[in-house]
Design brief:
The structure holds 2 protein chains of 2 kinds.
Chain A (H helix, E strand, L loop, with lengths): L1 H5 L1 H20 L1 H24 L5 E3 L4 E3 L1 H20 L1 H7 L3 H20 L3 H19 L6 H32 L4 H11 L4 H17 L8 H8 L2 H26 L4 H24 L4 H21 L5 H24 L19 H4 L1 H15 L5 H15 L3 H27 L13 H19 L2 H11 L5
Helix pairs in contact in A: 2-3, 2-6, 3-4, 3-6, 4-6, 4-12, 4-15, 4-21, 6-7, 6-12, 7-8, 7-12, 8-10, 8-11, 9-12, 10-12, 11-12, 11-14, 12-14, 12-15, 13-14, 13-19, 14-15, 14-18, 14-19, 15-17, 15-18, 15-20, 15-21, 17-19, 17-20, 18-19, 18-20
Chain B lengths: L6 H21 L2 H25 L5 E4 L1 E2 L2 E2 L1 E5 L2 E4 L1 E4 L1 H24 L6 H20 L3 H19 L6 H32 L4 H11 L3 H18 L8 H4 L5 H10 L4 H8 L1 H6 L1 H22 L5 H21 L3 H28 L17 H14 L6 H15 L3 H26 L6 H6 L5 H16 L11 H10 L4 H6 L5 H27 L5 H8 L1 H7 L4 H47 L6 H23 L6
Antiparallel strand pairs in B: 1-6, 2-3, 4-5
Helix pairs in contact in B: 1-2, 1-4, 2-3, 2-4, 3-4, 3-10, 3-15, 3-20, 4-5, 5-6, 5-10, 6-8, 8-11, 8-13, 10-15, 13-14, 13-18, 14-15, 14-17, 14-18, 15-16, 15-17, 15-20, 15-21, 16-18, 16-20, 17-18, 17-23, 18-23
The chains are: A mainly alpha, B mainly alpha.
Chain lengths: 480, 644
């Protein structure tokens, strides 16, 4: 029975998803539009409460599931992101006639998958969680059935996702073949006992790196990202860009740092190079984008690079793990917020907003523009926002791990990124609207949630201590 | 109460936020009420803190905590800066003076600014100013003090340029800002060297390590001269004095609050706060005394011939600040703070009174068009008369006790020359005050049209005048008897706790000097008044004739010693040429490189974009290629081909 109690939050979210699906047909269209987001948010909030209480820390389900501070942190992050994504969506779904019940249920199912990754202490649990998280995202990308870009996004994402899952599973198989274990702790102790990397271990390591790197959109396994992000409906993109990415890093931390930690000397330099390539490529290509949505897609690739840099620095100890977690929290807040700001201008017939459409945005929608500016400034990494603190906490362990060159690359990339982020701010505040000005939508729920999120970005940028302490506690289980 | 000391700046900050965010659209004239109420609340807390310090909490450090977490501003390596308040007698006095005088000026401004279209903006900036000023006096380290220091500079800039539609306020604001920045450069050098020498910026740590390690005299002198240079900028001393008279382009309450009572005294406060440093570096103190004395007489002579009532007051302020630095320089910091406090009252009153006159005279500031106003503006007249008496150091008004102590300290501590200049300046001061008051309030009206329309100001303006008049008359008694009054006992632990030189320096003088010195300064003041009355009442000698006789010297005074022209032709032109060169370098070299680089990057961005073909097969291929690369890297690494 305690086994079941250990996964109460996951069970709650699953029930919420089912409730939403039932409610969608039972309530009728009009009542459903108001009731479904309310049910979803209430259920997810209940799940957050459930993460705090229940069982003592430890292993459950005969060692397939672990509940520790790390699990707690990620559960809370996934649920918060799902709530945020739910709150910004209703008006858009209404406008685009997207089936709301399926949309919210899909978000919930994907969240269950992400939470399962956080729970996993075994390759099998982890893989199940990964698939459970990803498959709903394919659906989410293609949920706008009548739109050919949405279909293209879903199909591309699905084909490449299946390909990478196969690589990852193949890697797991090699790993099992070498160590005769699927349990993380057992794998780690086998690697410690049997010392250095042999041929098969290296094959396994490479396959795992690529498989997980794909999910996190690491260059050169990133190419699905811009197409999928651009084609998917904007609120879905907002969720896709943060939830699955955080989940992918949860998996990377569990597998690379947890199970394959003993091989860290082997993989850390490769991961560091991948991090540098990822952030640079993401930023350089983002410079050339004229479409804000696509620009933000590349920017999210660049942020993958920053987070990966902290992973590469894992020999610096708890501070590296804490940096990953802190950055993921910060990234989730600001990136979801930035995508959600596009909802103001994302009308029928536009896929995101071209830069020209944002000219003079501040005069037409002052509060929305202010929130967007806060998110962009935070993505750039300028104080007093959480984005600055997050970069600061990444650079610290990177230096401690002796990767000074990587810290320099991060700093240079931050300068590069400032150009395209602040370009949007300049257009919003200093340009006059020109040509046919698109009509704006001004949804109240969206504005409120963006206001709260942007306030949080600033407040956590000024008093980051408690969040950082939480991240440090959560990173503790990763260190042996 | 002390643990709630952060409430004192919190109220003005809240008023700033509320007025700034909602003032324009919703609050309108309520902003004045909100600002006044907030400062009033601060003043009540400040009074409470003052009495607690009086009751014996002589030195408390209160860190800023938000929701139970102690806020640490900077923590890099072993260098950390807390946001902490230092509550000791010195800061308690400063908080009290700042909040009380600010409160009265806020109330007055409700009347003075009533018809101005930027009402909310005025109270927004003024609230922010009070917040910054309080941070300045509460800070327990040099860096946080600098935050307040820059904050008040910013507010000063914004408020001098408050009527930015006209060109003069705009230029005056720019001038004030630039000259303050020049001073700030000195301050910055000062804190950098302090950190290098002492490894901390915290007052307590710095002064303790000063005792322990006894650094080189030259370094200490460098620190003190740098800090003092910063002080000359903020407190308008030679050679950075010339922004203050121009700052009179701001609204009169701003002149009263920022450019007379509070901000300009920040330099005095800084030097007083750093007394241990300055005492250890003896020669820097002499520099402070000499600069202060020179400024005092320099500004007083200019004030003799000005015709704009606010300019007279402005030069008088520069001159009085000079007295405060004289006090600091001759080793009497208590007298300096004492004079700072009394001056805050009577000079604020003189400015607000001038504002009341200007208000009545349809914004005319030229005293040549005033005259006979005492019948029309009785309240303004009587209150300004008290303030003028205090400024002229007529016993028993406040200015007498504090100024006399400064001049006396110069004599007893062995600076007879400075004492002589101080006494002479006292006579000049009495002359220009009498002249200004006479031209304004006595004689026949010289502009009948203006005179007919003049009327006494509303109660909301008159009441603060009355309150300040009471202060100007009575505040001096906290320093009675000289050297042994309440203020001396109170401030001693803060300013002379380190014993040593300062305490020794203030030897108790012999009875003859104790009586003779005040008598001399009072006599000098009376002579100044007598000459002024004789010249302006009985035209013996006639002022115009004197001006003609003085000829060239008179013109020099009217043109303020041509300092502005000198600066314009020497420094400003030079700076402009340098700035032009720097600009060209920036545009062509720096920006050129940056643009070239940016162009290269966006070119490569466009190139890399081509890799994004949109064809799934290509993507899968790139994944496989990536896999092979990663595998190769791992393999090569494991085989020892690549070394980390």
């Amino acid at each position: 029975m305690t086994d079941v109690a250990a996964v109460y939050p996951e069970i709650i979210v699953t029930i919420v998803a089912c409730l939403v699906l039932v409610g969608d047909t039972a309530l009728g269209r009009r009542r459903a539009t108001a009731a479904l987001p309310a049910i979803t948010v209430a259920g997810l909030a209940l799940a957050i409460v459930a993460t705090v209480t229940v069982v003592p820390l430890g292993h459950y389900f005969r060692g397939f599931v672990v509940v520790d501070a790390f699990t707690g942190f990620f559960r809370a992050v996934f649920l918060l992101l799902a709530i945020f994504a739910t709150l910004v969506s209703p008006e858009y779904l209404e406008r685009r006639r997207i089936p709301a019940g399926e949309y919210y249920a899909t978000i919930c199912f994907s969240t269950v998958g992400a939470m399962t990754i956080a729970l996993s202490s075994d390759l099998i649990t982890l893989f199940v969680g990964l698939e459970l998280m990803t498959i709903p995202i394919y659906v989410l990308a293609g949920i706008q059935r009548g739109d050919r870009y949405s279909n293209e996004a879903a199909l591309k994402y699905f084909l490449l996702g299946a390909f990478s899952s196969a690589l990852l599973l193949y890697g797991f198989a090699w790993l099992y073949g070498v160590t005769r274990a699927t349990d993380f702790a057992a794998i780690a102790s086998y690697l410690v006992a049997n010392g250095v990397a042999s041929g098969p271990t290296i094959v396994a390591l490479a396959l795992v790196t690529v498989g997980l790197g794909f999910k996190a959109a690491v260059v050169p396994f990133h190419q699905w990202t811009p197409d999928a992000y651009e084609g998917a409906p904007t609120p879905a993109t907002a969720f896709m860009s943060v939830g699955p990415k955080a989940a992918a890093f949860a998996a990377i931390l569990r597998v690379l740092v947890g199970a394959l930690g003993p091989l860290a000397v082997d993989w850390s330099i490769v991961i560091a190079v991948l991090a540098a390539v990822t952030m640079t490529a993401g930023n350089v290509v983002a410079l050339a984008q004229g479409n804000t949505k696509r620009m933000l897609a590349y920017s999210s690739i660049a942020h993958t690079g920053y987070i990966l840099a902290a992973v590469a620095a894992s020999r610096a100890g708890v501070s590296a793990g804490a940096a990953v977690l802190f950055y993921l929290f910060a990234y989730g807040l600001m990136n979801l917020g930035a995508f959600a700001c596009l909802l103001y201008v994302d009308l029928d017939g536009t896929r995101g907003a071209s830069l020209d459409e944002l000219n003079g945005f501040a005069r037409r929608e002052p509060l929305g523009a202010l929130a967007f500016a806060v998110f962009l400034v935070s993505l750039t990494g300028i104080p007093p926002t959480i984005g600055f603190i997050a970069k600061f906490y990444v650079i610290q362990p990177v230096l401690d791990a002796g990767l000074a060159w990587l810290a320099v690359v991060i700093a240079l990339n931050a300068v590069l990124a400032a150009f395209y982020y602040l370009r949007v701010v300049v257009r919003m505040y200093m340009y006059d609207p020109e040509g046919a000005v698109p009509r704006l939508v001004s949804p109240r729920l969206l504005s409120t949630s963006l206001g709260v999120a942007s306030a949080a970005v600033v407040i956590l940028g000024i008093v980051p201590n408690s969040l950082l302490e939480w991240a440090q506690r959560a990173a503790q289980p990763l260190v042996r | 109460m002390i643990e709630h000391v952060w409430l004192i700046p919190a109220f003005p900050l809240a008023a700033f936020l509320v007025n700034g965010l909602f003032g324009r659209r919703w609050l309108g004239h309520l902003t004045g009420l909100i600002g006044s109420a907030a400062i009033g609340a601060s003043a009540i807390v400040a009074i409470g803190v003052f009495f607690e310090v009086l009751a014996g909490h002589s030195r408390t450090i209160v860190p800023l905590t938000i929701a139970g977490i102690r806020y640490q501003w900077i923590a890099v390596g072993d260098f950390s800066v807390d946001v902490s308040a230092l509550v000791d007698p010195l800061s308690a006095v400063m908080m009290l003076v700042v909040t009380v005088v600010s409160f009265l000026i806020f109330v007055y401004s409700n009347g003075y600014m009533a018809h101005d279209h930027g009402f909310y903006r005025f109270f927004t900036w003024l609230s922010l100013f009070v917040f910054a000023m309080l941070i300045l006096v509460m800070a327990d380290n040099y860096l946080l003090l600098f935050v307040g220091w820059e904050g008040v500079g910013l507010c000063s800039y914004l408020l001098i340029g408050y009527w930015f539609e006209r060109p003069e306020p705009y230029f005056a604001a720019k001038k004030a800002f630039v000259m303050n920045r020049i001073g700030d450069w000195g301050y910055t050098i000062g804190i950098i060297v302090i950190f290098l020498v002492f490894g901390s910026l915290n007052f307590g740590d710095v002064f303790r390590r000063l005792d322990e390690s006894a650094p080189e005299q030259g370094v200490l002198t460098l620190i003190c001269v740098a800090l003092f240079f910063g002080a000359t900028g903020k407190s308008a001393q030679l050679p950075l004095h010339s922004w203050l008279p121009d700052a009179m382009e701001g609204p009169t309450p701003v002149s009263a609050l920022i450019h007379a009572a509070t901000m300009v005294t920040a330099g005095v406060y800084l030097v007083a706060r750093s007394t241990p440093l300055f005492t250890a570096a003896g020669s820097a103190l002499t520099l402070v005394a000499v600069v202060g004395t020179l400024t005092a007489i320099f500004a007083a002579t200019i004030a003799l011939v000005q015709v704009d009532i606010k300019r007279v007051m402005a030069y008088s302020t520069v001159s009085q600040l000079g007295y405060m630095f004289l006090a600091l320089g001759v080793g009497a910091p208590i007298a300096a703070i004492f004079h700072l406090a009394t001056h805050a009252f009577f000079k604020a009153l003189l400015f607000l009174g001038s504002g009341s006159v200007i208000h009545a005279m349809d914004n005319v500031q030229d005293m040549r068009r005033y005259g006979g106003l005492r019948r029309k503006l009785p309240w303004t007249y009587w209150t300004m008369l008290i303030a003028g008496g205090a400024l002229s150091a007529i016993p028993p008004l406040a200015g007498f006790w504090s100024k006399d102590e400064i001049v006396g300290a110069a004599f007893t501590n062995g600076y007879p020359l400075l004492w002589g200049v101080g006494v002479l300046t006292g006579a000049l001061t009495a002359f220009y005050v009498t002249r200004a008051l006479w031209l304004t309030f006595h004689g026949e009206p010289r502009d009948h049209h203006l005179y007919e329309h003049a009327h006494e100001s509303p109660p909301v303006m008159v009441l603060p005048l009355a309150a300040l008049a009471v202060g100007s008359a009575l505040v001096g008694f906290i320093g009675v008897p000289p050297e042994g009054g309440f203020i001396h006992g109170f401030l001693k632990p803060a300013l002379e706790a380190r014993g040593g030189e300062v305490a020794e320096a203030t030897r108790s003088p012999a009875l003859v000097t104790a009586l003779g010195l005040p008598a001399t300064s009072v006599a000098a003041g009376l002579i100044g008044i007598a000459i002024a009355l004789s010249m302006y009442v009985r035209h013996r000698p006639d002022p115009a004739a004197v001006a003609r006789a003085a000829g060239a010297y008179y013109r020099i005074l009217v043109n303020k010693y041509y300092v502005d022209e000198l600066y314009d032709h020497r420094f400003v032109d030079l700076a402009r040429a340098f700035a032009g060169a720097a600009w060209a370098f920036d545009i062509h070299i720096i920006d050129g490189l940056a643009n070239r680089l940016g162009w290269l990057l966006s070119l490569s961005g466009t190139g890399l974009r081509r890799l994004q073909t949109g064809v799934v097969g290509n993507y899968a291929l790139s994944i496989v290629a990536g896999l092979l690369l990663v595998l190769g890297a791992y393999g090569a690494y494991a085989a020892g081909v690549i070394k980390p």
